[in-house]
Amino acid sequence: MLAKINNFEIDLSKPIDISIPLTNTDENPIAWYIEKPSIEPVIFGDWIGKVSEGKSSTNFNNIFFNPHGHGTHTECLGHITNDFYSINQSLKQFFFFAKLITVEPEKFGEDFVITKEQVQKALSASTPLSMTKLEAIIIRTLPNQLEKKSRKYSNTNPPYLSEDAAIFIRESEIQHLLIDLPSVDREHDEGKLLAHKAFWNVKDTHNLNPDARFNATITEMIYVSDEIEDGNYILNLQIASFENDASPSKPILYKI
Ligand SMILES: N[C@@H](CC(=O)c1ccccc1NC=O)C(=O)O
Questions:
Q1: What's the predicted TM-score (pTM) here?
Q2: Which band of pLDDT confidence, cut at 50, 70 and 90, is reported for residue 129?
Protein backbone atom coordinates (compact mmCIF):
# COMPACT_ATOMS: atom_id res chain seq x y z
CA MET A 1 0.00 0.00 0.00
CA LEU A 2 1.40 3.37 -1.01
CA ALA A 3 0.71 6.61 0.80
CA LYS A 4 1.42 10.16 -0.20
CA ILE A 5 2.51 12.51 2.57
CA ASN A 6 2.86 16.06 1.27
CA ASN A 7 5.01 15.51 -1.82
CA PHE A 8 6.61 12.28 -0.55
CA GLU A 9 5.49 8.75 -1.36
CA ILE A 10 5.99 5.96 1.18
CA ASP A 11 5.38 2.23 0.89
CA LEU A 12 3.43 1.08 3.96
CA SER A 13 4.28 -2.54 3.11
CA LYS A 14 7.96 -1.82 3.84
CA PRO A 15 8.13 -0.78 7.49
CA ILE A 16 11.58 -0.51 9.10
CA ASP A 17 11.20 -1.39 12.78
CA ILE A 18 13.86 0.29 14.95
CA SER A 19 12.48 -0.93 18.29
CA ILE A 20 14.05 -3.64 20.43
CA PRO A 21 11.68 -6.51 21.35
CA LEU A 22 10.96 -6.92 25.08
CA THR A 23 11.33 -10.48 26.38
CA ASN A 24 11.67 -12.21 29.74
CA THR A 25 14.90 -13.91 28.69
CA ASP A 26 18.55 -13.11 29.34
CA GLU A 27 18.57 -11.68 25.80
CA ASN A 28 16.71 -8.62 26.98
CA PRO A 29 18.80 -5.46 27.31
CA ILE A 30 19.05 -3.94 30.79
CA ALA A 31 20.06 -0.51 32.07
CA TRP A 32 19.86 1.16 35.48
CA TYR A 33 20.76 -1.80 37.71
CA ILE A 34 17.45 -3.67 37.57
CA GLU A 35 16.76 -7.36 36.87
CA LYS A 36 15.35 -8.71 33.61
CA PRO A 37 11.59 -8.33 32.89
CA SER A 38 9.23 -11.06 34.00
CA ILE A 39 6.35 -12.46 31.92
CA GLU A 40 4.51 -15.09 33.96
CA PRO A 41 1.04 -16.70 33.88
CA VAL A 42 -1.53 -15.61 36.46
CA ILE A 43 -2.16 -18.35 39.03
CA PHE A 44 -5.40 -18.70 41.09
CA GLY A 45 -5.05 -21.78 43.27
CA ASP A 46 -4.59 -24.65 40.81
CA TRP A 47 -5.67 -22.52 37.82
CA ILE A 48 -2.69 -21.47 35.69
CA GLY A 49 -3.15 -18.99 32.85
CA LYS A 50 -1.14 -21.06 30.42
CA VAL A 51 -2.84 -23.27 27.84
CA SER A 52 0.09 -25.69 27.67
CA GLU A 53 -0.33 -26.41 31.41
CA GLY A 54 -3.77 -27.88 30.61
CA LYS A 55 -5.66 -25.84 33.23
CA SER A 56 -6.93 -22.88 31.24
CA SER A 57 -8.40 -22.02 27.86
CA THR A 58 -6.24 -18.93 27.45
CA ASN A 59 -2.72 -17.67 27.93
CA PHE A 60 -2.96 -14.92 30.55
CA ASN A 61 0.34 -13.40 31.59
CA ASN A 62 1.30 -10.69 34.02
CA ILE A 63 4.21 -8.59 32.78
CA PHE A 64 6.64 -6.75 35.06
CA PHE A 65 9.08 -4.44 33.35
CA ASN A 66 10.57 -0.98 33.50
CA PRO A 67 10.19 1.31 30.47
CA HIS A 68 13.50 3.12 31.04
CA GLY A 69 15.58 0.06 31.78
CA HIS A 70 14.25 -2.68 29.55
CA GLY A 71 14.24 -1.46 25.99
CA THR A 72 12.90 1.01 23.48
CA HIS A 73 10.88 3.68 25.23
CA THR A 74 9.70 7.23 24.65
CA GLU A 75 9.71 9.79 27.44
CA CYS A 76 8.46 13.34 27.94
CA LEU A 77 9.84 16.05 30.21
CA GLY A 78 7.93 14.40 33.07
CA HIS A 79 10.95 12.10 33.32
CA ILE A 80 12.89 14.85 35.10
CA THR A 81 10.26 17.14 36.65
CA ASN A 82 8.93 17.38 40.19
CA ASP A 83 5.37 17.62 38.87
CA PHE A 84 3.80 14.76 36.94
CA TYR A 85 3.66 14.95 33.15
CA SER A 86 2.54 12.01 31.06
CA ILE A 87 3.92 10.85 27.72
CA ASN A 88 0.35 9.92 26.72
CA GLN A 89 -0.68 13.58 27.07
CA SER A 90 2.53 14.96 25.53
CA LEU A 91 2.66 12.91 22.34
CA LYS A 92 -0.52 13.44 20.34
CA GLN A 93 0.78 13.12 16.78
CA PHE A 94 2.52 10.05 15.47
CA PHE A 95 3.97 10.74 12.01
CA PHE A 96 7.05 12.92 11.54
CA PHE A 97 9.64 13.94 8.97
CA ALA A 98 12.85 12.39 10.28
CA LYS A 99 16.51 12.16 9.46
CA LEU A 100 18.74 9.22 10.39
CA ILE A 101 22.38 10.10 11.08
CA THR A 102 25.31 7.96 12.22
CA VAL A 103 28.04 9.22 14.54
CA GLU A 104 31.00 7.75 16.36
CA PRO A 105 31.10 9.27 19.86
CA GLU A 106 34.42 10.99 20.65
CA LYS A 107 36.61 10.02 23.56
CA PHE A 108 36.97 12.62 26.33
CA GLY A 109 38.90 11.10 29.23
CA GLU A 110 36.93 8.01 30.24
CA ASP A 111 33.76 9.15 28.42
CA PHE A 112 32.51 8.82 24.86
CA VAL A 113 30.49 11.85 23.83
CA ILE A 114 28.39 12.86 20.80
CA THR A 115 29.38 16.45 20.09
CA LYS A 116 27.44 19.34 18.60
CA GLU A 117 29.91 19.45 15.70
CA GLN A 118 29.23 15.80 14.86
CA VAL A 119 25.48 16.30 14.83
CA GLN A 120 25.76 19.55 12.87
CA LYS A 121 28.07 17.97 10.29
CA ALA A 122 25.97 14.83 9.85
CA LEU A 123 22.77 16.86 9.45
CA SER A 124 24.26 19.24 6.92
CA ALA A 125 25.90 16.41 4.91
CA SER A 126 22.50 14.79 4.43
CA THR A 127 20.18 15.66 1.50
CA PRO A 128 17.81 18.39 2.70
CA LEU A 129 14.12 17.57 2.95
CA SER A 130 12.71 19.85 0.26
CA MET A 131 10.22 22.41 1.58
CA THR A 132 9.73 20.36 4.72
CA LYS A 133 10.63 21.02 8.31
CA LEU A 134 12.65 18.35 10.05
CA GLU A 135 10.70 17.11 13.07
CA ALA A 136 12.73 14.16 14.33
CA ILE A 137 16.37 13.12 14.45
CA ILE A 138 17.47 9.51 14.82
CA ILE A 139 21.02 8.99 16.03
CA ARG A 140 22.77 5.67 15.37
CA THR A 141 26.09 5.37 17.21
CA LEU A 142 29.19 3.49 16.12
CA PRO A 143 30.23 0.81 16.72
CA ASN A 144 26.82 -0.70 15.98
CA GLN A 145 27.06 -4.31 17.14
CA LEU A 146 23.92 -6.45 17.02
CA GLU A 147 24.68 -7.21 20.66
CA LYS A 148 23.27 -3.75 21.51
CA LYS A 149 19.86 -5.45 21.42
CA SER A 150 20.76 -7.42 24.54
CA ARG A 151 23.47 -5.29 26.14
CA LYS A 152 23.72 -5.02 29.91
CA TYR A 153 24.47 -1.32 30.41
CA SER A 154 24.58 -0.99 34.20
CA ASN A 155 27.84 0.59 35.38
CA THR A 156 29.38 0.60 31.88
CA ASN A 157 29.41 4.42 31.42
CA PRO A 158 27.75 4.34 27.97
CA PRO A 159 28.27 7.16 25.46
CA TYR A 160 25.99 10.18 25.77
CA LEU A 161 25.05 13.45 24.09
CA SER A 162 26.82 16.69 24.98
CA GLU A 163 24.76 19.55 26.34
CA ASP A 164 25.78 21.64 23.30
CA ALA A 165 24.54 18.95 20.92
CA ALA A 166 21.19 18.87 22.75
CA ILE A 167 20.95 22.68 22.60
CA PHE A 168 21.74 22.55 18.88
CA ILE A 169 18.96 19.99 18.31
CA ARG A 170 16.51 22.13 20.32
CA GLU A 171 17.51 25.28 18.45
CA SER A 172 16.99 23.41 15.18
CA GLU A 173 13.37 23.06 16.39
CA ILE A 174 13.55 19.28 16.20
CA GLN A 175 10.76 17.94 18.46
CA HIS A 176 11.70 14.28 18.69
CA LEU A 177 15.09 12.79 19.44
CA LEU A 178 15.72 9.05 19.05
CA ILE A 179 18.96 7.37 20.04
CA ASP A 180 20.38 3.85 20.43
CA LEU A 181 21.73 4.47 23.94
CA PRO A 182 20.07 4.02 27.35
CA SER A 183 20.26 7.74 28.04
CA VAL A 184 21.13 11.04 26.39
CA ASP A 185 23.05 11.82 29.59
CA ARG A 186 26.03 10.36 31.41
CA GLU A 187 25.14 7.28 33.49
CA HIS A 188 26.55 8.79 36.69
CA ASP A 189 26.18 12.56 36.48
CA GLU A 190 24.98 13.49 40.01
CA GLY A 191 21.54 14.14 38.56
CA LYS A 192 22.72 17.01 36.37
CA LEU A 193 20.87 15.63 33.31
CA LEU A 194 22.33 18.39 31.13
CA ALA A 195 21.24 16.98 27.76
CA HIS A 196 17.72 16.07 28.94
CA LYS A 197 17.26 19.58 30.36
CA ALA A 198 18.75 21.28 27.31
CA PHE A 199 16.61 19.32 24.86
CA TRP A 200 13.36 19.95 26.79
CA ASN A 201 14.41 23.49 27.67
CA VAL A 202 13.79 22.75 31.34
CA LYS A 203 15.52 25.41 33.44
CA ASP A 204 14.22 24.42 36.88
CA THR A 205 12.77 20.93 37.42
CA HIS A 206 10.71 22.19 40.42
CA ASN A 207 9.26 25.25 38.72
CA LEU A 208 8.76 24.76 35.02
CA ASN A 209 9.36 27.67 32.67
CA PRO A 210 6.42 28.23 30.26
CA ASP A 211 8.70 27.77 27.25
CA ALA A 212 9.75 24.29 28.33
CA ARG A 213 9.10 21.85 25.45
CA PHE A 214 6.06 19.95 26.75
CA ASN A 215 5.48 18.15 23.45
CA ALA A 216 9.06 17.16 22.71
CA THR A 217 10.05 13.54 23.26
CA ILE A 218 13.19 11.48 23.73
CA THR A 219 13.24 7.85 22.61
CA GLU A 220 16.08 5.73 23.98
CA MET A 221 17.40 2.21 23.37
CA ILE A 222 16.40 1.92 19.73
CA TYR A 223 18.39 -0.33 17.42
CA VAL A 224 19.05 0.73 13.82
CA SER A 225 20.67 -2.12 11.93
CA ASP A 226 23.55 -1.46 9.54
CA GLU A 227 21.63 -2.05 6.32
CA ILE A 228 19.36 0.93 7.01
CA GLU A 229 20.93 3.90 5.23
CA ASP A 230 21.37 7.35 6.70
CA GLY A 231 18.94 9.84 5.21
CA ASN A 232 15.34 10.97 5.19
CA TYR A 233 12.39 8.94 6.45
CA ILE A 234 8.84 9.24 7.62
CA LEU A 235 8.81 8.19 11.26
CA ASN A 236 5.75 6.60 12.84
CA LEU A 237 6.35 6.89 16.58
CA GLN A 238 3.87 4.82 18.57
CA ILE A 239 3.60 4.31 22.31
CA ALA A 240 1.31 2.25 24.51
CA SER A 241 -1.19 4.58 26.22
CA PHE A 242 0.50 4.63 29.62
CA GLU A 243 -0.18 7.68 31.81
CA ASN A 244 3.44 7.76 32.94
CA ASP A 245 6.52 9.82 32.16
CA ALA A 246 7.57 7.11 29.68
CA SER A 247 6.08 4.25 27.72
CA PRO A 248 7.56 1.39 25.77
CA SER A 249 7.46 2.49 22.16
CA LYS A 250 7.61 1.27 18.60
CA PRO A 251 9.30 3.67 16.18
CA ILE A 252 8.87 2.62 12.57
CA LEU A 253 10.61 4.22 9.59
CA TYR A 254 9.44 4.47 5.98
CA LYS A 255 11.95 5.42 3.32
CA ILE A 256 11.16 8.58 1.34
N1 LIG B 1 22.40 10.05 35.46
C2 LIG B 1 21.43 10.15 36.54
C3 LIG B 1 20.52 8.92 36.61
C4 LIG B 1 19.72 8.74 35.38
O5 LIG B 1 19.91 9.43 34.40
C6 LIG B 1 18.67 7.71 35.38
C7 LIG B 1 18.50 6.91 36.52
C8 LIG B 1 17.52 5.92 36.52
C9 LIG B 1 16.73 5.73 35.41
C10 LIG B 1 16.92 6.51 34.27
C11 LIG B 1 17.90 7.51 34.26
N12 LIG B 1 18.11 8.29 33.17
C13 LIG B 1 17.55 8.02 31.95
O14 LIG B 1 17.68 8.72 30.98
C15 LIG B 1 22.16 10.30 37.87
O16 LIG B 1 23.36 9.97 37.96
O17 LIG B 1 21.53 10.75 38.82
A1: 0.98
A2: confident
Between CA 60 and CA 191 the distance in angstroms is: 39
List of E strands, 162-226: 176-179, 217-220
Q: Answer whether 91's CB lies under 8 Å from 236's CB.
A: no
Dist. CA 172–CA 164, nearest whole Å: 12
Residue of minimum CA distance from atom 2 in ligand 1: 191
Residue 124's CB is within 10 A of a number of other CB atoms, namely 8
CB-based contact 75:218 (threshold 8 Å): yes
Sign of the alpha-carbon torsion through 187, 188, 189, 193? positive
Confidence of residue 225 (pLDDT cuts 50, 70, 90): very high
Of all protein residues, whose CA lies closest to atom 12 belonging to ligand 1? 183
pLDDT of residue 78 exceeding 80 = yes
Cα 69 to averaged position of ligand 1 atoms, centre (Å): 10
